[in-house]
Amino acid sequence: QVQLVESGGGLVQAGGSLRLSCAASGRTFSIYAMGWFRQAPGKEREFVAAITRSAGTVYYDEAVKGRFTISRDNAKNTVYLQMDSLKPEDTAVYYCAVQTASYSTRVLVTTTRLYDYWGQGTQVTVSS
What we know:
Layout: E1 2-7, E2 10-13, E3 18-26, E4 34-39, E5 46-51, E6 58-60, E7 68-73, E8 78-83, E9 92-98, H1 106-109, E10 117-118, E11 122-127
Parallel strand pairs: 2-11
Antiparallel strand pairs: 1-3, 3-8, 4-5, 4-9, 5-6, 7-8, 9-10, 9-11
């Protein structure tokens, strides 16, 4: 089992920044990719960003590329999402998730159903 706890959400004005953190505990040695997803009211959960175990490869959804930066600290079992130039359409509940199998393609690393453990979510609200 892996437990994930997110933090760092909140209310920010458009153009502002937030940094989300997600700390993993439990069987952390089993973690491969770590990712961030989001779900807005009335919409399906969608991929935002992911980072491989070695932190050598990162993936972003086109909607956030150039504005968001994912990183991880394996010594702390923590993944971060730096969100800059926030827009009202970024408003959502943000979830951290991990894969416990090693996938090597973008399609597999960005697929929601291939993530095995999820955090409880943290609300991000961007006002216009």
